[in-house]
């Protein structure tokens, strides 16, 4: 993987609107943005209602994912170009999710909705009518998905990267600052996790920083490129953004996204938690 | 402590995406505990700017959160007492403002321009 295969520019996107075999997909938690205007021909995915199991805290299963993509008119061999709001957090999450289920050719629109809007590029309200397909997914590729036990086992061993804001890392805030702060889980971070906020990987307009800047960022933060890496945030979407930077742009080998993230870890009984700005020691 | 309303519980259980900025402050938000930073994005002439990307930067200038201003230009953050910067990007231009927040509601005017 590399920037050339994983990321497309807004100019590339504009030239490929309506191209055969290319499907634009807007992914958001709040899909009212799509309803008010989206890239021409784009279909919408709802991060919650489409990609999360309605009862258990987990993803939709393989059969449900196949049904979802078939119903959206997305073919197994289509080039899927993902974009969304919130600096592409949910689009990056969907990218990782599509990879998890083995989609071959998936790309992220650099800058997402924000750059598209700030550039004054066209948005439409017309909803495309794509004929149904018969989509085939693979079994989940758990080489890119971390679960809680391996996260606990990774303390002091693998690179743990906490991509939340510094105040969430230190335990001064429990959620991003646009959400109320009363939350069930404990505050703080996983011992030995380094703090590299996702936002440092992005420019103000939502585009990713250059490979050189990214290498410098993670190098200076103390990420050991010879070790395996697990990224986490609060619910796994901001860490998808960092997973994308490390695995897809920089080509690091063993990088997993911990989608349980702090809402799970901070609620576990008996696990170590560190409060404050330092990574802390493995106990 | 009051029980969270269904709306607030829903927001907490769901993702990290920014909620509708025009919605009234949920009844469950306890202003004796929360530090709310809010305001309206405007251009010099006073007109409100809808759809501006407003981000909250902490005392060290680090990104903390980002919301999109409502049709009336409104934005709102839940932060903590201390120094913060709010910065907006929009098609009408960019701008920023500094605030030292205290518990309760902190109103910050934010003007953008080229």
Give your account of this protein's structure.
The complex is a heterodimer of chains A (283) and B (114). Chain A has 283 residues and is an alpha/beta fold. Chain A folds into two domains: 137 residues, Rhodanese-like domain (Oxidized Rhodanese, domain 1, 3-Layer(aba) Sandwich), CATH 3.40.250; 122 residues, Oxidized Rhodanese, domain 1, CATH 3.40.250.10. Chain A is 29% helix and 12% strand. In chain A, the strands form two sheets. Chain A has a five-stranded parallel beta sheet. A four-stranded parallel beta sheet of chain A has the order 7-6-8-9, with helices on one face. The mean pLDDT of chain A is 95. With 114 residues, chain B is mostly beta strands. Chain B has one domain: Immunoglobulin-like (Sandwich). The N terminus of chain B is likely disordered. Classes of the chains: A alpha/beta (283), B mainly beta (114).
Query: How large is the count of helical segments of chain A?
Result: 11
User: Which structural class best describes the helix and strand composition of chain A?
Assistant: alpha/beta
Percent of residues in helices of chain B: under 10%
| Category by helix and strand content of chain B | mainly beta
Q: Give the strand content of chain A.
A: 5-15%
Indicate the proportion of strand residues of chain B. 35-45%
Number of strands of chain A: 9
What characteristics describe this protein?
heterodimer; A: 283 residues; alpha/beta; Oxidized Rhodanese, domain 1; 2 domains; 5-stranded parallel beta sheet; B: 114 residues; Immunoglobulin-like; 4-stranded antiparallel beta sheet; 7% helix; disordered N terminus
């Amino acid at each position: 993987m590399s920037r050339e295969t994983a990321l497309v520019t807004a100019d590339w996107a504009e030239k490929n609107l309506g191209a055969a075999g290319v499907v634009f997909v807007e992914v958001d938690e709040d899909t009212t943005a799509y309803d008010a205007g989206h890239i021409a021909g784009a279909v919408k995915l709802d991060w919650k209602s489409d990609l999360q199991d309605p009862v258990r805290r987990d993803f939709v299963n393989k059969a449900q994912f196949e049904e979802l993509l078939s119903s959206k008119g997305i073919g197994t061999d289509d080039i899927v170009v993902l974009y969304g709001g919130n600096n592409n957090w949910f689009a990056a999450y969907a990218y990782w999710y599509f990879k998890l289920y083995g989609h071959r050719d998936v790309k992220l629109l650099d800058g997402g909705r924000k750059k598209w809007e700030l550039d004054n590029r066209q948005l439409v309200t017309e909803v495309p009518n794509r004929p149904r397909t018969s989509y085939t997914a693979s079994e989940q590729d758990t080489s890119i998905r971390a679960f809680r036990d391996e996260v606990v086992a990774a303390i002091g061993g693998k690179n743990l990267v906490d991509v939340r804001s510094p105040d969430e890392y230190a335990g001064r805030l429990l959620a991003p600052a646009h959400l109320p702060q009363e939350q069930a889980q404990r505050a703080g971070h996983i011992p030995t996790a380094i703090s590299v906020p996702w936002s440092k990987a992005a420019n103000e307009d939502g585009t990713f920083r250059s490979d050189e800047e990214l290498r410098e960022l993670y190098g200076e933060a103390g990420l050991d490129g010879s070790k395996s890496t697990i990224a986490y945030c609060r619910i796994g979407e901001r860490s998808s953004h960092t997973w994308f930077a490390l695995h897809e742009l920089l080509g690091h080998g063993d990088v997993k996204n911990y989608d349980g993230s702090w809402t799970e870890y901070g609620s576990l009984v008996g696990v170590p938690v560190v409060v404050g700005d330092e990574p802390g020691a493995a106990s | 402590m009051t029980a969270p309303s269904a709306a607030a519980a829903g927001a907490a259980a769901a993702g990290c995406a920014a909620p509708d900025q025009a919605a009234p402050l949920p009844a469950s938000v306890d202003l004796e505990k929360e530090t709310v930073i809010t305001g309206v994005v405007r251009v010099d002439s006073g007109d409100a700017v809808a759809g501006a990307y407003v981000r909250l930067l902490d005392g060290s200038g680090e990104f903390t959160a980002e919301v999109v201003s409502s049709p009336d230009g409104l934005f709102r953050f839940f932060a903590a007492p201390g120094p913060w910067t709010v910065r907006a990007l929009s098609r009408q231009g960019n701008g920023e403002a500094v605030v030292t927040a205290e518990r309760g509601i902190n109103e910050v005017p934010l003007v953008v321009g080229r």
